[in-house]
Amino acid sequence: MASAQDYVPGEVIVKLKDQPGAQSNFMGKASSQKSMNLKKSFSRLNMYHYKLSKGQSVPQMVQELKNDPNVEYAEPNYIIEKQSSEIHGDVLSFSDIQELAKSEGKLESSTVEMGLEQARQSMSATSVKPIIAVIDTGLDIDHPVFVQSKAVWSNSGEIPGNGIDDDGNGFVDDVNGWNFVANSGVMFDDDDHGTHVAGTILSVVVDIFDFPVEESPFKIMPLKFLDSSGIGSTSDAISAIEYALANGATILNNSWGGPSYSVSLHEAVAVSYSSGASFIAAAGNLASNNDSAPMYPASFDVPNVVSIAATTGSDSLASFSNYGFNTVHVGSPGVYVLSTVDGGGFGYMSGTSMATPYVAGIAGMIKHEQSSMLGYQMKEIIEDTADAVSPLSGKVQTESRVNASAALAAAQGANVDGSQPGYDVNSGYRGSASAEQTAGGCGLVSKMAYDRYNNNGRGGKGGGNSILKNGKEMHVKDVKQNTLFFKLFAFALLGLPMLMAMFMKRNIAPSERRRHERFEISSQVSMKVGDKQLVGSVSSISLGGLKVDTDAMLEQGGIIRMSIESPDGNEKVEVAGKVVWSQERQSYGVAFEEANSKVLNTISGWTSGLKKAAG
Ligand code: CA
């Protein structure tokens, strides 16, 4: 049982046994004897979402339901959340973007790799547009980037605003997707997260900073299940997955997660696999090892799930990113990603949430070229074409960062075999099981998983058991295997501060919100103030600014031009800053002014090897 805070109070999810009479026996009893009210049914999965009556305890009711002969399992309705930072700095308008483009030469999304533009030109002219579901906080469907690219999915069977479920799919006026928070077809994004994610997906195939934006070769189906704080429930996540699959989405982007294992979510993801869809999921932002402390849905061992770690501009693992040699598959750029935000602007965000949509965009390219390709085959192409990068050695299964151009080329040359192995949630590999257990008593998929762990071509580090053992020795420090311990731990670490930050978000000044992790550094800076040239040493740095020690006097509020050296003295970045505080006229806090993505990527490359500063 999980901690008291990580599930929706007063709600349970129940799966009934597949036996005659189970449904009628249970339904009657649930309302008459247990005073539970049915909120939602997932009939395809034989699962039901119930609201308990006031005062009933979730743990007690889960136990009671498990003893019911009609019930296969019962569990709390776990809470899950987005996996990203807030926007770094200010929201940029389209004209800001043009200014930035002038100063940087051609502006591309910070995730987009060299050569991708040429690769895009080779995409076939098919009219087949794969549908990518963005299961998230919603989408600003009026953002010029989405309007010009015509990227937003529209339900051709639905007549807008007539109050009728024209296509009979169970949703009234679901013109562009569905909002499971408000239970409405009106689509908006009250958090920025979903809009940012969708922009990154699009940025893989078109230049989102070049207006008018080209027409998108795929469609984005926004499904809102996270609220304005980026928080949602397992029940709504399952609803969104079901909607996506029932309405034609073949790629599902999941930039969210939580540490609690849910059988019902696992089953829903397994259905996405049997439907042939691709399920791309964020590994999480706890800087922890998913092999020992899983993050779901990324850690489900379902063969179509691709679990994504975030990398920096210099291909290091991002300081916040989860990793896991056995359960996280591949790295993707996720630090200071510039993309669309709510209200028509652009902003920088970081997170495995930002790394995931880049891979979803690659999956979209693959599916565009090979419309019959299945989810697990798209995963194979993404993994096999990724570039090995040494900082990911031992950190992710492929030890590689994705390569969109190579994935596209491989998809174009692939022969598609329409068969896929079966999968059963009860026998699949679980994050906490050992390789020996997995190999012992399981079916085809587990065997595949085991073979993969043992024969990882690019890993080349010997036998499976020793990889696991070494992996544990390398990565697991004092985190106990005990799941209860971990759930409490993770929620305290991630959930509560995030929740508090979210509740406070609307009430604090923008400058207060821009909190960045600081790192201890020892390097030099030369500064230009007016026409004076000064020198100083840098003792700590973050993506928001730095602390300078100097004998020169700097005026608070003054603007200085800085040339900051890397710790090894081999690299320099030029950036302007504003003096925001001083200490005894020898230490100064300088906040970056308009640092561009190149500068921030370089700094984030430096900090990946540095110690976090205290306080
Ligand atoms: Ca409908």
Secondary structure elements and pairings:
Blueprint: E1 7-16, H1 22-32, E2 37-42, E3 47-51, H2 58-66, E4 71-82, E5 88-92, H3 94-104, H4 116-121, E6 131-136, H5 144-149, E7 178-179, H6 193-203, E8 219-224, E9 231-233, H7 234-246, E10 251-254, E11 256-257, H8 263-274, E12 278-282, E13 305-311, E14 330-333, E15 337-340, E16 346-349, H9 352-369, H10 375-384, E17 387-388, E18 400-401, H11 404-412, H12 435-441, H13 444-454, H14 464-475, H15 483-504, H16 510-513, E19 519-529, E20 532-541, E21 545-549, E22 559-565, E23 572-583, E24 587-593, H17 597-607
Parallel strand pairs: 6-8, 6-10, 7-8, 10-12, 12-13, 13-14
Antiparallel strand pairs: 1-3, 1-4, 2-3, 4-9, 4-11, 5-16, 15-16, 17-18, 19-20, 19-22, 20-21, 21-24, 22-23, 23-24
Calcium ion binds at residues 158, 165-167, 169, 171, 174.
Question: What is the structure about, briefly put?
Answer:
The chain is an alpha+beta fold and 615 residues long. The longest helix has 22 residues, at 483-504.
Task: Provide an overview of this structure.
By secondary structure, this protein is α+β, with helices and mostly antiparallel strands. The chain is built from 17 helices and 24 strands. The strands form five sheets. Strands 7-8-6-10-12-13-14 form a seven-stranded parallel beta sheet, with helices on both faces. The longest helix is centred in the last third of the chain and has 22 residues, at 483-504. It binds calcium ion. Calcium ion is lined by residues 158, 165-167, 169, 171, 174.
